[in-house]
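Sequence design from tokenized structure. All designs in this work follow the same two-part layout: the structure record, then the generated sequence. An example of the structure record is given first.
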């Protein structure tokens, strides 16, 4: 099974999964009632845990780390519907779904998808799902119906020729990420592949207050190894939601009419990014404690970040073990075990792309799960110079869901417009 989730700058004429009709207040409130804050926090925490796991391996190389917690949750959610027994228990524990009925998980996922695809003015999001099935595999009808109804998934036939299957899936992902993820699958699926599940999300957000390009200048960004990198630094002094502690500063830059924002967390000089992430894992309310609108003199690099990883090992370390075991995995609610097969997760590929510039943010992320057999603001401005490694997240305001999250160690330059 392959699941992808992507976010990208999109052509509104191509974003067929994004409704132009906004939700009414009653519809929005009804959707919010289906989403428990604890589930959103579990998703965000899962994202932070993955960033930390990846960071211990890659930060010394200066690689940017970028994922979509929402994408990963949606991808695994489709597989979770087919799981049974100990396989389901482990998946639930890692994803924060323990103690919930499957109907609750699905209702929450469907409500979050509804809210994200109606993000307000200045933001466009399109979400698409598909299920690619090998001919002759007896997929449970109840499972197929659930994936179609909850995730609005398209049903596709998985090409029996691995090379052709790779091409068809990559084209599907490319189309639904506005071309930002052209090659999710680096290798053809194994011949034993029974099913591929794909989730794609396309995102295009314009700042509520754009940065003036005339004030963008060449400045130095300090890398982990102590060297300096020349970056294009954007500047803006505006009222932003801001919080700080002894070890870090955090600011939220709103998109559109404010229904989503970019959260930027900057460690103080001498503090490491993984230390700050551990603080947030220990106390997820820390970011919002004392948060208020302040006049912020902000310096933020314009950059492009791209990252790809097989999440199998990371999720195994987090406790999701049986799902990947070809002999112990139990996905009988998806594909009943037969004489020649037993379904298990062979791999989970994730790829994310993000660009931040004076106008806003464009991003794309793709996850592939391979299944084989406040108060008046003070007047004095606070200075926040994002000139060293930082964490960021694209956040849905109403739910607090992290659509994207990343650790930026090396702001790669954007192509000149």
């Amino acid at each position: 099974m392959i699941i992808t989730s992507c976010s990208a700058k999109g052509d509104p004429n191509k974003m067929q999964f994004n409704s132009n009709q906004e939700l009414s207040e009653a519809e929005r409130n009804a959707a919010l009632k289906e989403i428990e804050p604890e589930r959103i926090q579990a998703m965000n925490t899962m994202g932070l845990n993955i960033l930390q796991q990846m960071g211990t391996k890659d930060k010394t190389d200066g690689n940017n780390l970028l994922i979509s917690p929402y994408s990963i949750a949606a991808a695994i959610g489709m597989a979770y519907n087919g799981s049974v027994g100990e396989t389901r228990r482990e998946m639930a524990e890692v994803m924060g779904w323990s103690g919930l009925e499957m109907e609750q998980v699905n209702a929450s996922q469907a409500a979050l998808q509804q809210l994200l695809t109606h993000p307000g003015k200045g933001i466009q999001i399109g979400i698409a799902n598909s299920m690619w099935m090998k001919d002759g595999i007896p997929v449970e009808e109840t499972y197929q119906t659930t994936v179609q109804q909850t995730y609005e998934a398209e049903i596709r036939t998985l090409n029996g020729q691995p090379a052709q299957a790779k091409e068809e899936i990559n084209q599907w992902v490319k189309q639904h990420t506005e071309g930002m993820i052209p090659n999710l699958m680096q290798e053809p699926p194994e011949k034993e592949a029974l099913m591929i599940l794909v989730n794609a999300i396309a995102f295009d957000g314009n700042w509520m207050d754009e940065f003036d390009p005339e004030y963008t200048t060449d400045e130095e960004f300090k890398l982990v190894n102590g060297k300096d990198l020349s970056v294009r630094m954007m500047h803006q002094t505006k009222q932003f939601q801001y919080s700080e502690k002894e070890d870090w500063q955090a600011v939220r830059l709103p998109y559109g009419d404010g229904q989503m924002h970019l959260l930027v967390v900057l460690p103080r000089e001498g503090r490491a990014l993984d230390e700050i992430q551990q603080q947030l894992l220990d106390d997820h309310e820390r970011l919002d404690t004392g948060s208020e609108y302040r006049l912020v003199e902000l310096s933020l690099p314009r950059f492009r970040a791209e990252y790809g990883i097989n999440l199998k090992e990371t999720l195994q370390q987090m406790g999701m073990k049986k799902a990947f075991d070809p002999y112990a995995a139990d996905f009988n609610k998806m594909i009943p075990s037969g004489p020649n097969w037993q379904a298990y997760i062979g791999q989970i590929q994730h790829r994310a792309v993000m660009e931040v510039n004076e106008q806003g943010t464009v991003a794309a992320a793709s996850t592939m799960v391979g299944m084989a057999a406040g108060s008046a603001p003070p007047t004095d401005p606070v200075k926040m110079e994002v000139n060293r490694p930082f964490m960021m997240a694209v956040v849905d305001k109403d739910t607090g869901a992290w659509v994207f999250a990343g650790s930026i160690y090396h702001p790669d330059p954007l192509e000149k417009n």
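DSSP finds nine helices and 15 strands in the chain. We note this feature because it recurs in several other targets discussed in the main text.
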